[in-house]
Predict the structure.
Amino acid sequence: MSSQVRLRLLPSARCLFDEPVQVKVAGLRSRQVVTVRARSTDERGVVFNSSASYRADDSGEIDLDRDASLCGSYVGVEPMGLLWSMRPNALHKRFQKTNSLNPHVVNFSVHEEEGRVLAEATNERFLMGSGVSRVPVKEGNIRGVLFTPPGEGPFPAVLDLYTFGGGLSEKRAALLASRGFLVLTVALYGHDDQPKNIKEVHLDYFEETIKFLKKQNKVGSKGVGVISLSKSGDLALSIATYLPGVQAVVWINGCSANTALPLHYKEKQLLPALTVDINKVISTESGALITKHVMHDPLTEEHKATLVPIERAAARFLFVASEDDLNWDSKAYLDEMVDRLKHHGKENFDSLSYPGAGHYLEPPYGPYCASSFHGVVGRPVLWGGEPRSHAAAEVHLWRKIQEFFRTHLNCDVAQTKSKL
């Protein structure tokens, strides 16, 4: 390692997962070309890597906020490109970061063209800001984790639905709590003493979670917000339609109909399940499938009973669709819901769509996922999207989600942002 070459991460080597970091290199020769690498290992031991080559300026410095990558995992000026362009060292692996207690650790390094390491630095990317409390919840039927921001509050309350695929994911909930929201993330199956699989969904469970959230001491919103992704999108629609106490819903790349499993409430079936036409699955050379058009059309006479009647809901909706979603046609479902609400004279919605983005829109600066195992399909699938456009969509959407909840989950006291 070269003693005079320095790799700095600004403003700090420790930050929240959703915060950008400035990567700067100094002490190089004038106009020297070097490769900057990033490496990380996820919770399942999968290694992710990225690299980009840069030319130093006349002073021997490189600034990723200013300078363009010449080649590598991306080209052009991409200040956070080393993070979102990281790829797994095995096929069809998705970056796993579900436990909020440990930071996402990224090792940055600068290499000569011959490969020798000139400088190194470590970036610790935390899911929980300073003072955020994390309390596992096992009350009644509820299995999940409650995240509470520091301070007296009151805080807007949000229910995070990362419910399909089994188990529990804490990443999005912990980060929202770090931004001033009191968040309960829940598991529906496959966690703690819950069954490993389910054959139907019961809204009674979510009625219980909403009541639990609303009785928390620091909650200031009259109702709760709900945030979802994929299959949990139609579940969020149903929660807002059939249950009281929901003020705001973020629907990300979901369906407008109840999919996969019948929906029950008070021991009665509310909605049948929209099913798939297996003949519409497309195979690819990589071994991953494309499932974009496998769902039956919920607008046909045969399947319209599966549509969630969101025109009855009083909540405010934020519909978000990726235009290159290959899991299913999220944009078509978004358009259908907007048309239906307009037809009923409703204006309780906002919508966003992102060209070039794929299915998994998550908090920003995690590795882009091109393909991974799909729990329902039982095979790897392509999620769609172009990495650069997808990464930009995640940054924009994350800000919009927070603005939406702050606007529509009214509290008496303005929220303050938590810092590490």
About this structure: Helices lie at 81-84, 171-178, 203-214, 231-242, 330-343, 387-408. Residues 413-420 have pLDDT under 50 and may be disordered. The CA atoms of residues 214 and 223 lie 7 Å apart.
